[in-house]
Amino acid sequence: MSSSQAGARAPVSSRFFIRVGLFVSICAALVWSLGELVRCFVPWLALQDPRRRLLWEEDLSRWRIFLLGDSAFCSNFVDRPEETLWARLSKLQNEEVFPGALNGATEEQVIEQARLLTRAGSIGSRVVFLDVVATKFLRFGQPLEGSNAVYDKALARRFAGKLRLPCSLDEVEAWLLYNCTKPFFLLRCRDATEALVKAAGHRPRYFHDGANRDRVWRDGSGFARERFERFLESRNNSRTAPTLDWVLRACAVLRGAGIRPVVVIYPLNRALIQDYLGTVDGEKLYGQFARARQAEMAKLRGRGIDTVDLLDRVPSEGFADLVHTNVRGDEIVAQELHSWFGLAGRSDHPPTIK
Length: 354
Prior knowledge:
By secondary structure, the chain is an alpha/beta fold.
């Protein structure tokens, strides 16, 4: 090849990459501009699912009290926003409580919730209530709602730690996802984008919708029994002993950022267990829950972690199934969490409600 031919090819190659660069830059500018227009001028907040707020809220520094965890803190069985656990606790505390729990979150995803929260700017002492559903004392594996894999990428778009070698491919992917989508509202807040798209057809409904409504486990629908049988099946098929080490890891993440974690042992429907298994077998199973609870509580107290033990604090009519509370149950849980603040402020009282 002659030198004149090589010189002719070089400008062509350069022009190609310049055009590609301009095209990518123009597309990025359009996506950024559209996102900022939506963020500033479209009432997108009114269309969001409050139970997924951790995935779309832009500024977490405004809150002092947070709820983290899984479906127990999601108030799935209420009919109105003002009946939710966080709304009731906000009213009792006279300050807004942030609902950061994610329905169906796995143990690792709860730890990621804690990591995300540590990125929020501090406005003083912060308190995080972390729910632990009693069934996790005796069951190893995924939550009854099933693993929600969509949270992994959604949380990665909100949080990515520093890359430290050696690192896994998943860590590299999370880091790239976070840094590439960070400038673009429509990409980093996919929940907001998806809600806007869905709202084009109809306004989303997040309360009193299908099975997610105020209900009592004895309503004759079979809803609570089916969930209880799924719990028994997952427990019987488990070949690994349950562990709550993930709770200690989540608390360590929060404490490392100066945040005070409070582990909440969520209520358990004792009457349902007795009704479905019989008095003798039901009491035997409940006793296993209670003993496992005591062992885990001792472990938490040994680490100096605050706890609120609600295992037997909600009457049977306050449940929608084995572990999830309805309107009446959420009201009681909110009152118990509110009481913790009064007890925690007393120097002569240990930081545990029982």
